[in-house]
Structure formats: C-alpha cells, structure tokens
Design a protein that fits this description.
There is one protein chain. By secondary structure, the protein is an alpha+beta fold. It is built from three helices and ten strands, in the order αββαββββββββα. It is 22% helix and 34% strand. The protein has a four-stranded antiparallel β-sheet with strand order 3-10-8-5. It starts with a helix and ends with a helix.
C-alpha cells in the first residue's frame, strides 16, 4: 500500500509541476486519474499594439512551408542520449528522414524518435526533461525541397 501512495504522490507532483489539466496512470492494478479544475485568471493591463499587416503577410509564406514533427507518445522529452552528451539536433542542423532527433521516456522505457522528413531544424519546441503529450509539436523543420 505504501508503494501505491508514493506513486500517487509522485503523479500529483508531476501533474502540478507540468501544469497538466488531466493525468491518467494505470499499472499493476493501480489506476490513478487526476483532473485539475481550471481557475479563472483575471488579467489587467493593455495588449500591445498588433504588428503591421504587412509584417504578418511576410511571415505567412515562410511559416506555411514549415513541417511540424510531433510527439508519437506521451512521455518525458530528452534532447540528448544522456545528460552529459550533446543534443541529437540543434537549430540550424539538417536532419535526414529516419534520423534520431530526440528520446521520449514513457513507462521507464526510452524511445528513440526519428525524423519523419528531411529538412533543416528551425525551431525546437520542447526542453529536455519536459513532459510532452502525444501530438505535441517537438520540432519545426524547413523541408528539404524548400532548403535546396
């Protein structure tokens, strides 16, 4: 029973730390479901003036060509194979389809995540140690046909 309490406490801490709205965990006869109620937040102040319409137009074509590489599963994102190793990829790197770009730890198993397309990394959207949900954007690439 003590192990179950410790696991439940660890899940509560993780849900709070990563500000998860829901968390479900099932293991060896233990099922935990955590749901946080949204708290209304009052904001005070003014919004900054929007950028000029022309600025948005110039951004649109470049943004539209980017490819989003998404998390294939829920777990903890790691940018490198170990804490003292260099990251698999950095902004500006060119990746080949099938190349390992990160790890996702799920249920104490480290899963290599391959690039689904070749291209130049223009944005890394997750930080090492961050809990990511399935479908979350991890990287944005400029596809190979655009970079060549």
């Amino acid at each position: 029973m003590t192990d179950e309490i410790e696991r439940t406490e660890a899940l509560l801490i993780m849900a709070r730390r990563f500000q998860l709205q829901e968390l479900e965990w099932q293991e060896e006869g233990l099922r935990v479901f955590i749901r946080r109620e949204a708290t209304p937040v009052e904001t005070v102040g003014t919004l900054p003036a929007p950028r000029a319409l022309q600025d948005r137009r110039s951004d649109a074509p470049a943004r539209a060509t980017l490819v989003e590489l998404r998390a294939p599963m829920t777990g903890v994102f790691y940018s490198a194979p170990s804490p003292d190793a260099p990251p698999y990829v950095e902004v500006g790197d060119f990746v080949e389809e099938g190349q390992t770009i990160c790890l996702i730890e799920a249920m104490k198993v480290f899963n290599e995540v391959p690039a689904e397309r070749s291209g130049k990394v223009v944005e890394i959207c997750a930080t090492s140690g961050q809990l990511v949900e399935q479908g979350a954007v991890l990287f944005r690439l400029e596809p190979e046909e655009v970079t060549t």
